[in-house]
Amino acid sequence: MIERVAYDDDAHSLCVSFRQTGKYVYYDVPAALFEALCQAASVGAFFNTRIKGRFQGRRDPERKRYGPGA
């Protein structure tokens, strides 16, 4: 489900790259939560229970869109 995660210390934002839907940025995520995500036995399960729906997120604004409906 999740391909890669990254954290911006200055912006307190978490970037999550999903295999099927692309890259999303989640805002005001504590650094400790990112650290716990990286140590989780299941990154996907941790994301679903501790981040999804709890932090404001949106599709990465830097992501270029191609094709129909882009």
What would your notes on this structure say?
This protein has one domain (2-59). Helix content is 24%, strand content 31%. The protein has helices at residues 31-39, 43-50, and strands at 2-8, 13-18, 22-27, 57-59. The chain has a four-stranded antiparallel sheet with strand order 1-2-3-4, covered by helices on one side.
Distance between the termini: 23 Å
* SS summary, helix count: 2
Helices and strands, in N-to-C order? EEEHHE
CA radius of gyration is 12 Å
Rounded average pLDDT: 89
Poorly predicted sequence stretches spanning 5 or more consecutive residues: none
Major sheet: 4 strands, antiparallel
Number of strands: 4
Q: Please estimate the helix content.
A: 10-25%
Structural class: alpha+beta
- Determine the strand fraction and express it as a percent band: 25-35%
Coarse shape: globular
* Whole-number count of domains: 1
Write the layout of secondary structure elements.
Blueprint: E1 2-8, E2 13-18, E3 22-27, H1 31-39, H2 43-50, E4 57-59
Antiparallel strand pairs: 1-2, 2-3, 3-4
Helix pairs in contact: 1-2
Task: Quickly describe the structure.
The chain is built from 2 helices and 4 strands. The chain has 70 residues and is of the alpha+beta class.
Defining key terms:
24% helix, 2 helices, four-stranded antiparallel beta sheet, 70 residues, 4 strands, alpha+beta
